[in-house]
Amino acid sequence: MTASPDAPEAADPAAEPAVARPASVRGRLVSATARRSRPASARRRRRSSTLVLSLALMATGVLWTVLAPSGSAQDSAADSAAVREGRALYLQGCSTCHGLNAAGTVSGPSLIGVGEAAVDFQMSTGRMPLAKPGAQAERKEPSYSQVQIDQIAAYIQTLGGGIEKPEVSEEALADADLMFGGELYRANCAQCHQAAGEGAPLTYGKYAPALTNATPEQIVEAMRVGPESMPVFAESQIDEEGATAVAAYILHMRDTPSPGGHKLGSYGPVPEGLLAWLVGIGGLLGVCLWIGARQKV
Amino acid sequence: MTTTSGPGAPAPKLAKRPSPVRKMNRAVDERFHTQRSLRENLNKVFPDHWSFMIGEIALYSFVILLLTGIYLTLFFDPSNTEIIYDGSYVPLKGVEMSRAYASTLDISFDTRAGLVFRQIHHWAALLFVAAIIVHLFRVFFTGAYRKPREINWLIGVGLLVMGIFEGFAGYSLPDDLLSGTGLRIASSIAQSIPVVGTWASFLVFNGEWPGTNFLPRLYVAHILLIPGLLLALIGAHMGILWFQKHTDFPGPGKTEDNVVGHRVFPVFAVKSGGFFMMVFAMLALLGGLAQINPIWLFGPYDPSKVSSASQPDFYIGFLDGSTRLMPPWEFRGLGHTVAAVFWPTVILPGILFTLLALYPWLESKFTGDRESHNLLQRPREAPTRTAIGAMSITFYVVLWISGGNDVIAKTFSISLNAMTWAGRVGIIILPPIAYVVTKKLCIALNARDHEIAHHGIETGIIRQLPSGEFVEDHRPKPDPVPDHPVVPTHRFELSPPGEHGNGHGKTGVATRARKAVTGFFTEEKAEGGEEPVSGARH
Ligand code: HEM
User: Fold this and answer.
1) Among B65, B220, B292, which residue has the most ligand 1 atoms within 8 Å of its CB, making it the best to mutate?
2) Residues of B numbered 385-404 whose beta carbons fall under 8 angstroms of chain A's beta carbons: which are they?
3) Residue B47 — very low, low, confident or very high, per pLDDT cuts 50/70/90?
4) Which of A201, B189, B363, B414 is the most exposed place for a label (fewest CB within 10 A)?
5) Domain B46-301+317-376 is classified in which CATH homologous superfamily?
6) Which pairing describes strands A200-201 and B82-84: parallel, antiparallel, or unpaired?
7) Are the C-beta atoms of B258 and B252 separated by less than 8 Å?
8) Could you tell me how far CA A43 lies from the centroid of its own chain?
9) How far apart, in whole angstroms, are the C-alpha atoms of residue A166 and residue A225?
10) Residue B168 Cα, gap to closest chain A Cα (Å)
11) What ranges do the domains of chain B cover?
12) How much is the ipTM here?
């Protein structure tokens, strides 16, 4: 799991082949609305295209070879140091479950076509590598550095493309329309993650986690990837502007001090009722006892 | 009516010249004959026991509900009309919402002290219903509802039901997502009633759900109809209490025909006034420090949206729980379909509240006890009743926990399905277990009391008799030993009324205040002493 010294520089450009997905894949995943350009994304796209146009042909080739049953495809990805590093890391830490060529085993699904967004989401939230099998992978401290995560992501991206890692800039967050984000959040997310983003259980030990720790990137990745029981919110449903607004709204909710005092976990009537009984009734019964004891005459 | 058997004290010197206040007082009396009833009522005797103050928590919460509620009515607009929000809560600026929701946001963000009033109001609502429930337990477990007080028990059950409806109406007013979700469930419950359901729901909601004109109706119910009813019921409750007089636990000097305690003035009045301030302080603390019902996070009601963990306030929780535990069984027959919600939300509370209301009569029917009782029982003295109470509480608590099972599942990382099944099993096996255990416990405690009353208190000193037998020394129980087993409490140290405190040297603040005011109101000699007094019960 050691990252080579030159990995940092190598990681960035190598992460970009994502854009060079075959047109057919892109058309399936991304709708026209998503391509409505905004300054930040346009800049990013221009940069990435200049950086990786040269790799486009190669990546297309990789995709088709990978889709073929033979396992020799990985060798042709050796051009990029980052991808090579990523592959090494992958073989070391992930292949036991996801298979030597990422085609999946009984203990883990295939990663071909999941894309770098999925890898970044799963690894930066610490869900992968999976610690213990259970109803659902849990969020924990990530066990890889961001550089290593990017390398593995780059490697997985070469295996059939997939959703690229979204970028959420500080400015975009600051400019985001909170009202729009709130509307989208209440319409699409609150039914699982609860109105205040405190999370809630689903069936059979699964749960929608609290959104208290997710970074803006992870929020957008989660929407695009739809991990486990969470549905995918593709750009055709919630475009980039909307996704940023949702992230901004979630950050706003959790970072704004509540005007009414202690939040009680923002969990609504259950903790409220508990407090009314324990502190309200409990405290006043204590007062009754105290007054009663003082009246002994 | 109430005569005192307190010893006479030397009459305080009457003022030589009547003061202007006194003259006015006399003038009022000459016209309205107020003195006699004032004298009687201020001299009324109330017994002391901490548990007799629980009802007061409910009463004072209600007063605070009225006060804060009146403030809220100045700003709240119960209208379904849709407008575009333009207040100071940024994330909702520009959202289309009803005036009701917008005005609640304005109360929260743009009205002086609006949010703290809203929060005190809501906390007071929770405390109100919770105090009613605890008060009910006190009355139940001491047998205070027995003849002649069955009617006041019935009124109490009415107050509980009305309090629950009032709270639900209030919870539904702001027209946020939680309110709307709750109302929608209420409408489907109403519709589930066979034959009349659809019609009843149409009547209440003024047409198909969500009716266009429903909030104004709900508002009238919340601020006029139900509070009016509550006020009338509370008046009757207190009036009957005043007339029948308070019960008390047995003790020296206490009989079925007297009341031992403090007079309304000054001790009881001062104590109660102080306690009101305590309740108010508690609610002000909660309202000022703990956020309740942050409607701005839930967003305006929209039938297509729902938040997970949408819970009702705690007093509705048991119905939510029964719905969650009930398997989704629908019944078809006689040309009707009875929806699954009908059983846990209509039939179950119907049975529960009917049993609760009829309990005094059921008990007297089964025990054959048709006597009047003014002395209370301690829970252990009536093992069957106490066991029934424990069983019912267990039943209620299982439903209640199940109503919040998603939050519990999330907090303690338990599977929600496991919680549901634990609730289904628990609701069947836990209440009987509670019954048996409580009954055994009561009987054991009684046996111990009996032992103490007849053999004295164990000293732990073991002696060997010459015969070789071991015996434990027992200290005799302190006198006076009543003829029923009662564990010694501080009351045993009380000297019977009249033995001391005949006015000599007793000039505490309370005594002086009482003397002054009694003299002022009645122009009669003041009674001596602040010691407990006993009044005849006629
Ligand atoms: C005559 C007495 C009362 C008046 C005038 C009154 C008035 C109001 C008004 C105007 C509202 C809507 C504004 C708002 O939600 O902030 C409200 C809400 C509410 N009321 Fe009352 N109310 C009274 C008594 C009660 C009682 C006895 C209860 C409970 C047992 C109660 C429980 C509630 C609740 C739970 C709410 C929702 C509060 C919230 O927004 O969080 N109210 N009341």
Assistant:
1) B65
2) 404
3) confident
4) B414
5) Cytochrome Bc1 Complex; Chain C (1.20.810.10)
6) unpaired
7) no
8) 23
9) 11
10) 12
11) 11-43, 46-301+317-376, 377-538
12) 0.80
